[in-house]
UniProtKB/TrEMBL annotation, chain B:
Protein name: (2Fe-2S)-binding protein
Domain SoxA A3: 3-87
Domain of life, source organism: Bacteria
GO molecular function, one term: oxidoreductase activity
Organism of origin: Nannocystis pusilla
InterPro entries: BFD-like_2Fe2S-bd_dom_sf, Metab_Enz_Cyan_OpOx_G3PDH, SoxA_A3
Gene3D superfamilies referenced in this protein's UniProt entry, alphabetically: BFD-like [2Fe-2S]-binding domain
UniProt keyword Isomerase present: no
Keywords in alphabetical order: Oxidoreductase
UniProtKB/TrEMBL annotation, chain C:
Protein name: FAD-binding oxidoreductase
Domain FAD dependent oxidoreductase positions: 17-371
A Pfam family of this chain: DAO
GO cellular component: cytoplasm
Source species of the chain: Nannocystis pusilla
Key word Oxidoreductase present: yes
Keyword list, A-Z: Oxidoreductase
InterPro entries: FAD-dep_OxRdtase, FAD/NAD-bd_sf
One function term, GO molecular function aspect: oxidoreductase activity
Amino acid sequence: MSPRGAACYRRRVPKAPLLAPPGPPTISFRWDGAPVAACPGDTVASALIAAGELATSRSAKYRRLRGPACLHGGCGTCLVRVDGRPNQRACLTPVREDMCVEPQNTYGGLDPTALVDQVFRRGIDHHHLVVYPRIANQMMQGVARELAGFGELPDAPPEDVAAVVDHAPEVLVIGAGRSGRALAAALTAAGHPPLVVERRAATALGGSDLPARLLAGVGVFACYPQERLWAAASEQPPVLHRLRPRHVVLAVGAHEPTIPLANNDLPGVVSARGLADMLEQTGRKSSARVVVIGEGARAELLASTLAAERVPPARVRKLIGARRVKGVQLEDGKILRCDLVALAPDPAPAFELAAQAGAPIHFTGAGFAPVVDADGRIAAGPAAHPLEAEGAQTAPPPPWTLWAVGELAGATTPAEIRGTVDRCAAALVRALAESPDPKDSHARA
Amino acid sequence: MTARTFVCRCEDVTLTEIERAIAAGLIDVEEIKRYTGLGTGPCQGKECLSALGRLLVARNLIAPAALRPFTARPPVEPVTFAALAAGATEHPEEPSP
Amino acid sequence: MTVAMGRADTPLPADVDVAVIGGGIMGLGLAYHLALLSGGKGKPPLSIAVIERSYLVSGASGRNGGGVRMQWGDAGNVRLMMDSIELCKDLAQQLGINLWFRQGGYLFLARTEAGERRLERNVQLHGEVGAPTRLLTAAEAQAIVPQLDVAEVRLATFNPEDGVVFPWAFVWGYAAKAVERGVVLRTHTSVVRVEPLAQGFALHLHTGEVVRARRVVNATGAWSGALNRQLGIDLPNRPHRHEILSSEPLKPFLDPLVVDLSSGLYFSQSTRGELVTGISLPDAPDGSDESLTLHSSLRFLTHLSATLTRLMPITAAMKVLRQWVGPYDVSPDGDAIVGPSPGHPDFIQVCGFTGHGFMMAPAVGRLLARWLALGEAHPMLARWSPGRFAAGGVARREDMIIG
Ligand SMILES: Cc1cc2nc3c(=O)[nH]c(=O)nc-3n(C[C@H](O)[C@H](O)[C@H](O)COP(=O)(O)OP(=O)(O)OC[C@H]3O[C@@H](n4cnc5c(N)ncnc54)[C@H](O)[C@@H]3O)c2cc1C
Ligand code: FES
């Protein structure tokens, strides 16, 4: 029987629920063969965590149980199989009645972690693992190949017909989070409604301030300065969007990096920010014992939002638990029991698109960020690749002006975020007034 | 305890493995990425790159001003071949000037 | 186990017997084999230095698809690759590092009559040389890769000895073993000027250091023209950007590397489970050194995706994880450029390997080292002579170059 098949027939013990629903659940979907109740605002991840189902896969090398962590589309360990499609991000996938969600790479509940921990106490050096003799080496490679890979081939190619759409907006705003929405509102008020592109589905956005021109469920995946366009796509239906804007505002926020602590990968170790946002979006209330690990005002704030105890990382010896996190052991030996550990690191700006657009990138102490001026303007040109020949032909300057707001522009508190939005909106409106769009941007979009 | 302290969960890269790479003389993020596999999984470095940067700076292996990220390769998030195929023209157009 | 992958602060001797410029697979494979031969048969040991501008695996050797095959259209190349694959079989044990060499075969698909004829000729030729390639019908090809849409496939060939590798580990393995045997490996250092001396050359480094070498090997691949021009060596190889991508990793589903002859599409599955795939862009311009740019393009993604999803429809629901670019070092007649340079016999080329230098490197490193250290001839060396272009009228022998 295939590992997936085996998992589908497994009898499962219901876990204690961790997050209370905002109202009676009206949706039911299948997780690993068993029904899970959910509410309309839920993502697969929020519904699973609510139900106490924290593990969704096993890791490739150490065979550790893993589950949703960043709750923000950024970490890649919440990948599940949904209706025969592998590697769907549970934290970005809205729940639908009757959907079939399956774990990946788990081999029907076999638990090899203890064995791996025993044999590879000091870790696995995959470059020098079982190199000799040749026959053993070949066997090892065969086993490694079977264990690697997240998920199996899709059941079928997508049914929807793929399409391509071109857009030429005057202003493109990437991201409909707090800063993207505020900026869109300011520009709209000034008579320049921007096109806003957001990778989360519209149902997962909530709020009453959604921009008028919004492409939701569409992720901007690259800037190609040499081709003078930005590219975005949705998965279902498969649509490619080519965007040729005059101004681009990056409102893409920040990633929540991990904090290197022993056992920081256990299911139930999540991002504090991701958890707080998830509760806000779904209207769920946490009934779990949560410990926040982090330092500074932001961690403090998140801990109070989550009604959690907070400890600084330096005081933590390790996280404890086997199939899920059970507690935090402190350096003095004391153990804080909990159901979830919420990490509150300093966020790392999502600099990737800016870098592709040629922005100079620097290290902020927490992560990497583009260099911006007071208005959020980024002086970006097509940067020569370090390995390119000297004097390589560089493309002409890009046809857009690049801006950043919010966390990407260095803001951390709501007031600072608001400040970056106000300054950027004012500067953008001035720039638009100085060089109006030759064509009607609405007609072109 | 560093053998189960994860810096990159996608590719199961632990602090021990990073330390092994550093001991081998690697301090450039591009080299550490390639030797350990860090940042090459589904998240493409969103979770681990800054953690690695902090670690190198904290250990005085590189000055913060000299630290650069590894190349932010497209796509910044996974995209299906189906959607991409829709953008093909029979004869791929010349790159714009 | 420690690894020696070169350092920016490795002390360099002022004088060496052989200086290799470029720490890609060619430079390091050669240095490793030279070090193995050095001091043998009553000869004094050679002092060898390798100088690499960036980190190891920064060049084409760190950016390729890792395909290894003996399915070529010319007997010389088939024999060379049979040697190389033989060497690969226990190379992991010799280098003490996992190379993830997996012999899943190469499956070539022909969709045109011309392609069909090429494959038929190959099988005949391979039979004569002793390579186990066989002809397959479309249905037999589909039995090997069930997800293929073979409606347009007229004929296929399969060789089970072909396969894929994890390229980076070769470079690290050669480096570590070369260093263990006394080779000096300096990384993050570029050779900015080559000055001919009465005996040998002086290499001026960007650090201000100077290394004198009796013989110099130009193993800088796509960047070799810049150094050659300094010595007035005029060779016709040119850099050419080649794009490639990998998908999200999935459980093993694809054993061979598949090549569609008509479109130049190739794809294989790595040990980690990623689909690694590239294609030739029909109208990609030939570059000069000056136009070697390494930017990724949407044009490549869309063209590849359309071709791939037509041939292998299930891939439509898979996702691209990462795309990148590397330089091909294209030689106009499809043959590599290896040996003494015209006018500078002690400046030795090992360049022009287009899109297949990685798989040839194990055999090339060995045969070139034997020639350098022992004066031993090899039939391919005559064919690869850098002097052949000046003589004019070089015939193109190979038509199985992909990408
Ligand atoms: C996308 C792609 C896919 C490919 N697929 C395959 C495949 O499937 N199978 C296969 O066999 N081959 C493949 N190839 C080809 C293969 O990668 C190359 O032929 C091979 O790696 C060439 O090795 P090299 O050592 O000559 O070059 P490189 O690896 O490029 O090494 C040259 C080195 O020289 C250094 N250098 C340059 N100038 C200087 C200087 N002045 N001073 C010091 N150092 C300098 C560079 O930094 C570089 O590291 C592919 C290539 C590409 C780009
Ligand atoms: S990507 Fe979904 S939890 Fe991180």
